[in-house]
Write a structure and sequence with these properties.
This protein is α/β, with parallel strands linked by helices. It is built from 14 helices and 11 strands. The strands form 3 sheets. It has a 7-stranded mixed β-sheet with strand order 1-2-9-6-5-3-4, sandwiched between helices. The protein has a two-stranded antiparallel ribbon with strand order 7-8. α6 runs parallel beside α11 and α11 runs antiparallel to α12. The chain is globular and about 65 Å long. The N and C termini lie far apart (57 Å). The chain binds nicotinamide-adenine-dinucleotide. The site of nicotinamide-adenine-dinucleotide has 30 residues, from α4, α5, β8 and α6.
């Protein structure tokens, strides 16, 4: 029986891998034996993960003969902070970790980004292993090496690039993910399929199996998405060209996240939900920014196809605001945050221009009125043809 699948890639001449496993005990043992570590492992995990999963991983770690130091943490957006990076670094120092010690994280994107940053900074980097536990982490944040914490209300304002030596995907975790977090992660899958030549309609045809988390289908979605992500960052680690396309949906998505964090409540949108709204926004932006009638027609066709796929997967395509929130105030806040996007390198924010599926490009926004139009479209019940 094949108990694991493996994707290998190289970053700056070092080998890294992603292992999809049914047998976590064996995979942990194989991997940790192979690493030249000092046999000290700090195991940091999200307190919401099922005890059975944590027991499996803890047993696997124990069987390696290493000294294990477990630490449970809460995954909240507000905990993705520089103070928590310093708290982790203090913990590593109190435990006298060396550059050959292992920090293993099991959690979603929040804990992953936080722990990766602390692991990168402590003694300029130790051995970091990620076992992703949310769908966003499984299909996206576990690879690529972006670490980060939020600062001054801005998402990932502080961060570095630091790649996990290994990502272990434990298939038993998939069924334990809460529904909203499973669905939210599917937005990044849709994004990867849009960026690649993969058949987008597959997501439509298999929607029922996807939502039921059919093991064969979820495995395919995870491995497809991670392969597409690796292809995009492998020759552009520091995000100057091709890797920027992975930001499709993020100029607007992050703006909606930051505006809702500030005006409604923290975690009003899951990251993936905001990306879903952001992808629709950037397709609408592409429609508004082109003068070609032919291109507009093609974009409209793709918009309705992508909108349908997202909706069938229970992802949002319009913003629903609580009644107490003033729509035009919210619009102003989103507009403000579009200008805070990290891809901005001049006075014009950049977004990912959707030409058609698999053909996208990074572009500056030409007409700032279009930013307001896009946000207005997202928060009101209007049709794109009304513009
Ligand atoms: N580094 C990257 O490349 C990258 C890519 C995408 C997103 N991100 C970051 O990831 C974050 C969003 O990730 P997320 O959606 O995973 O958020 P998250 O880590 O907060 O997880 C979402 C929720 O799911 C819970 N959870 C996770 N796994 C679980 C499990 N197996 N069982 C029960 N509960 C579980 C968490 O406790 C949390 O309540 C954002 O901060 C975003 O900036 C980073």
């Amino acid at each position: 029986m094949i108990y694991q699948d493996r994707i290998e890639y190289k970053v700056n001449d070092n080998y890294h891998d992603i292992i999809y496993t049914k047998n976590i005990l064996r995979s942990l043992n194989d991997k940790i034996t192979e690493l030249n570590s000092d046999k000290k492992i700090v195991f940091i995990y999200d307190e919401n993960i099922s005890n059975n999963i944590i027991k499996d991983i803890s047993l696997g770690l124990k069987l390696t003969g290493c000294k294990i130091l477990p630490k449970k943490i809460k995954s909240l957006k507000k905990n993705k902070s520089i103070q928590n990076v310093l708290n982790l670094i203090k913990l590593f120092s109190d435990l006298s970790l060396t550059k050959k010690s292992i920090v293993m994280v099991c959690g979603g994107g929040v804990i992953g980004d936080l722990v990766a940053l602390a692991s990168c900074l402590y003694r300029r980097g130790l051995i970091y292993i990620n076992i992703p536990s949310s769908m966003t982490a499984l299909v996206d944040s576990c690879v690529g090496g972006k670490t980060g914490v939020n600062f001054q209300s801005q998402i990932n304002l502080i961060g570095t690039y630091f790649h996990p030596k290994t990502v272990l995907i434990y298939d038993k975790i998939i069924k334990t993910i809460p529904e909203r977090d499973f669905v939210s992660g599917l937005a990044e899958v849709v994004k990867c399929y849009i960026l690649s030549k993969n058949n987008l309609n597959f997501l439509n045809i298999k929607r029922k199996q996807i939502l039921k988390r059919d093991p064969k289908i979820t495995k395919k979605l995870i491995l497809d998405s991670l392969k597409i992500k690796v292809q995009h960052f492998i020759n552009d680690i520091y995000e100057n060209n091709n890797r920027l396309l992975l930001n499709f949906g993020h100029t607007f998505g992050h703006a909606y996240e930051m505006a809702s964090d500030e005006m409604i409540k923290k975690d009003y949108f899951r990251h993936g939900e905001a990306v879903s709204l952001g992808m629709i926004s950037e397709i609408v932006m592409s429609y508004l920014e082109t003068n070609s009638f032919k291109k507009k027609k093609e974009i409209l066709k793709s918009l309705s196809q992508i909108q349908k796929i997202l909706e069938e997967l229970n992802l949002p395509t319009k913003i629903k605001l609580p009644p107490k929130i003033n729509k035009s105030e919210f619009q102003k806040k989103c507009y403000f945050y579009v200008f805070k996007d990290k891809k901005k390198i001049s006075e014009r924010p950049r977004y990912i221009n959707f030409i058609k599926s698999s053909i996208l490009k990074i572009q500056e926004i030409q007409n700032f009125d279009n930013i307001n139009k896009v946000i207005y479209y997202l928060i009101n019940d209007i049709d794109i043809k009304d513009f």
